[in-house]
Amino acid sequence: MILIAGFPYVRREYLETFDAYPKKDSLIFLLPKIWKAKSGKVIFYPPEDSRIISAKSFFYHSHYPIIGGLLKGWMPSFPFHLFHVRKKVQLVYSCSEPILLTTLYQGLFTKLMGKKHILFSWENITFEEKFKGFNLFVKKMIIKANIHLSDGVICGNEKGVNIYRKFTNKPIAMIPMSGVDSNFFRKSDGLKKFREEDWSEKVVFSFAGAIGYRKGIHLIIKAFPEVLKELPQAHLVIAGSGEYENEINNLIKETAISSVVTRIPWLSRNEMKELLGASDVFVYPSLSFGGWEEQFGYSMVEASLMELPVITTRSGSIEDVVKNRKTGIIIEPNDANKLRDVMLELGNNQELRKELGINGREYATEQFSHNVITRKFYNFFSSIIEV
């Protein structure tokens, strides 16, 4: 039996990955009773499931004074719950970063009870690039301690595999934290509508995700007035919430494009599907910022499954998700002029949009659907247990 502990799987769409697990009754989940995201604007609760144990957790983000994010997702009762199921559990999978004390807490008690332990990381920037001096020393000590207590590491992207290979010779697998439901995110025929708006005569460019500077949304807005000059039927949708909302809303007003922009808050999964179904191009010009680069990009995978071409940037691990000129178009980050050019290229070429969209669904299904990701988890878990 395997115990999966941590806050990410409190989100139903992440947890659904394990619905296709070959022996799903052999899984137990220890999840927070409540999880607050996006500065408390989005709240998640674990679904009702006999496999789920809920526990009180602390520290919901990475911006606390002094400790930063070192204790993000900490569940103090973890040892109690592990002790309670210890006779059945062979392996603990901590879906929290090796840079956290939260992970070290789980790893220490896992090994004290004689169980095997696996870590997860999305990290795709070397720690020497992100931290300096004493801070780097402390972070590396935590990482090395976590690696020492682990029996294997799962990385969500290829760059992460290369980073952790320098720390250990223990087994490493490249598996995103969850798959995506390729049956749910499927293009359907019908009018191009989202909510009450009819966009059947429009070419709709959409962005959906966290509203932060690092997502490059300001570049879309800067490029859009030039797009409108050559493509007057263009319409822009920006969906999401985050710390950069005021700046984005003000920039929309300053560029005088409010009449052709739909601005909406965070979307449910059903609403996300509806928006993508009403869109023609998905735009996601992510950029490096504050020691962070895009680590995966689930919204891009969902867009590909809905047969949308994706415009994005050569940043972080995006090239794991989007294949240039096959499933989308990848440009250099922070280039509003090039962004304008490729928006016009796709906006004016329906056949190219269709070709990239069909390729995108095929690639996303083969690489990131629930069945594919679940099988990878199963194979890696089994290999660690059998050693």
Write the layout of secondary structure elements.
Elements: E1 2-5, H1 12-15, E2 27-32, E3 35-37, E4 42-44, E5 52-55, H2 78-85, E6 91-94, H3 101-112, E7 116-121, H4 127-130, H5 133-148, E8 152-155, H6 158-165, E9 172-174, E10 193-194, E11 197-198, E12 203-208, H7 217-230, E13 234-239, H8 245-254, E14 261-264, H9 269-277, E15 281-284, H10 298-305, E16 310-313, E17 328-331, H11 336-347, H12 350-368, H13 370-386
Parallel strand pairs: 1-2, 1-6, 2-5, 6-7, 7-8, 8-9, 12-13, 12-15, 13-14, 15-16, 16-17
Antiparallel strand pairs: 3-4, 10-11
Helix pairs in contact: 7-11, 10-12, 12-13
Features:
Rossmann fold, globular, six-stranded parallel beta sheet, alpha/beta, 2 domains, 387 residues, 13 helices, 17 strands
